[in-house]
Amino acid sequence: xxxxxxxxxxxxxxxxxxxxxxxxxxxxxxxxxxxxxxxxxxxxxxxxxxxxxxxxxxxxxxxxxxxxxxxxxxxxxxxxxxxxxxxxxxxxxxxxxxxxxxxxxxxxxxxxxxxxxxxxxxxxxxxxxxxxxxxxxxxxxxxxxxxxxxxxxxxxxxxxxxxxxxxxxxxxxxxxxxxxxxxxxxxxxxxxxxxxxxxxxxxxxxxxxxxxxxxxxxxxxxxxxx
Length: 226
Ligand code: ADP
Ligand code: ADP
What we know:
Layout: E1 4-12, E2 18-27, E3 32-36, H1 43-51, E4 58-63, E5 66-67, E6 78-81, H2 93-103, H3 108-122, H4 137-150, E7 155-159, H5 167-184, E8 187-192, H6 195-201, E9 204-209, E10 212-217, H7 219-223
Parallel strand pairs: 3-8, 3-9, 6-7, 7-8
Antiparallel strand pairs: 1-2, 1-4, 4-5, 9-10
Helix pairs in contact: 2-3, 2-4, 3-4
The structure holds adenosine-5'-diphosphate (2 copies).
One adenosine-5'-diphosphate (ADP) binds near residues 13, 15, 37, 41 and 45.
């Protein structure tokens, strides 16, 4: 687990678009922080900078007390969950869960332990021998989350992970995410354009507009304000 701190962070894309403008945000150790705002407000860019998938144009990014501005994604001890799941179609669920750990040379018994634990947490035990093509959208999304969980990272980063699911599944998955977070307590940064999702999931919600942070507060104080 780790605190994530952004100080004066800018992102200017080649061509001159200022996608993120002087972002100052402290995400506490173990906190579930939601970045919310309309399409194009810069939330994805902010998340991708935390992940190291986009370079920071100005400012400082700290994860667990270390400045990580120039560190590649693999050296940041974070796990990202994508909207499109990014599963390997030719591998079984079990192999998908284990793959990232194999690459990192984690010992086999330890891989087996983590895969078993994640599968139990996510209700994936019946599907371990199946390939992604034989799963429903909700099951695939659970596998994507499982791949992040087995890494036992300092932080989870999630970019609209539920947006490809139908409304009923989204409600179920929100409940699952809340449970997982209660159980694991891992610092999480979660991007969505959906206010209901932001309210249900976030310990705190950061509202972005045109690349700027407008407000950051608990859902209750943000949305129940008179
Ligand atoms: P959001 O996730 O809130 O929809 P984005 O972070 O994707 O917003 O985009 C913020 C702004 O940056 C938008 O104006 C978008 O068009 C622009 N943008 C995003 N990615 C790129 C890119 N790779 N190159 C140039 N401009 C980009
Ligand atoms: P895992 O995250 O399970 O370890 P990989 O080992 O394949 O999966 O990922 C290696 C790196 O590639 C990670 O840092 C991850 O953030 C990045 N990555 C994985 N899938 C994607 C994707 N669809 N788009 C961009 N980057 C990705």
